[in-house]
Design goal:
Layout: E1 2-6, H1 10-27, E2 33-37, H2 43-52, E3 61-66, H3 74-86, E4 90-96, E5 114-117, H4 123-136, H5 143-152, H6 157-169
Parallel strand pairs: 1-4, 1-5, 2-3, 3-4
Helix pairs in contact: 4-5
Length: about 180
């Protein structure tokens, strides 16, 4: 199985990736978890070894891949990802800002790959997101404060979350 998360909203995309990995860890041994960052020179070879080997301690595996378009032969990488998409006992999670370039990676947006795009939220969805996240930190926002935060951090979810943490840590629970 191959799960492809992509889009410019890094915070929401990475939260989804964390929840998928967390669910795997709850059900399976962490011995079956491999994380590979293709910005590292040996990552592709390490990934191949991990994906092709079978552990005696874990029947299922999860492979988390980062920076896939950054290194190596795109045709070879795409071929390995296509194989993983058909695997039943191996789940590969690919999280990128954008779909890797080239026709070789077009399969990432079609079944059997499960893909989800994370664009920046806008309008009412963004305001609801700000309100919900503030509430998770125990912060109640006035209408004006909500609109101010929503306007100031539109298109920058990481900074919004950082600001909400600072407000919480400062001891403010109503703004």
């Amino acid at each position: 199985m191959l799960i492809f998360l992509y889009g410019p909203d890094d915070w929401r995309r990475e939260e989804k990736a964390k929840s998928i990995v967390s669910e795997f860890k709850k059900r399976r041994s962490t011995l079956g978890l491999g994380v590979f960052d293709f910005s590292e020179e040996s990552a592709f070879e390490d990934f191949l070894v991990f994906s092709r080997s079978q552990s005696v301690f874990s029947a299922a595996k999860m492979i988390v891949l980062r920076g896939v378009p950054g290194l190596g032969d795109p045709i070879r990488i795409a071929g390995e990802l296509k194989k993983l998409a058909k695997e039943e006992k191996t789940t590969a999670l690919l999280s990128e800002r954008a779909k890797p370039a080239g026709a070789d990676f077009g399969f990432l947006l079609r079944p059997p790959v499960s893909s989800q795009k994370f664009d920046f939220l806008a309008g009412r969805q963004w305001e609801d997101f700000v309100r919900l996240r503030a509430a998770e930190f125990g912060i109640r926002l006035s209408r004006e404060a909500l609109f101010l935060l929503a306007a100031a951090y539109r298109g920058d979810t990481w900074s919004l979350m950082t600001e909400l943490r600072k407000i919480r840590d400062f001891g403010q629970n109503e703004i």
